[in-house]
Write a sequence for this structure.
């Protein structure tokens, strides 16, 4: 979908996402996605249904889900994503706020290679007569 084909609300959301420092726009799964530091934090919806799907922290998610314009996202809602429907100016303001929260959440997370689950310390173990390395990698 070209920029000219978008509704005014989606154009404003796209401009807002693009103005954030370090943001990269790309196409993922047929939608426009915005990422910072390799982490996708927002997806813009289609023309017929102006909406933005964002991933925010647990507290922000609980607060946002209390609003009538916000619902748990399809398919990825179990992973912490919510969808904000933009039907009026109040919905657009809420979408801007959700994008800002998602951006801050994505920036605050560690890069993928530095997660605690990727940190290993190495050891050895005898398995079937041979020695194998195992354990956690140190920083």
């Amino acid at each position: 979908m070209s920029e000219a084909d978008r509704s005014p609300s989606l154009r404003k959301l796209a401009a807002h996402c693009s103005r954030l420092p370090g943001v990269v726009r790309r196409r993922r799964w047929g939608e426009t996605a915005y990422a910072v530091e390799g982490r996708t934090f927002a997806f813009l919806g289609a023309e017929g249904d102006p909406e933005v799907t964002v991933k925010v922290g647990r507290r922000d998610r609980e607060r946002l889900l209390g609003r009538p314009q916000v619902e748990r996202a399809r398919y990825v809602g179990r992973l912490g994503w919510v969808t904000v429907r933009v039907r009026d100016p109040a919905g657009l303001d809420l979408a801007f706020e959700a994008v800002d929260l998602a951006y801050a959440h994505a920036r605050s997370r560690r890069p993928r290679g530095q997660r605690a689950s990727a940190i290993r310390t190495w050891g050895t173990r005898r398995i079937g007569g041979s020695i194998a390395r195992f354990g956690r990698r140190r920083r």
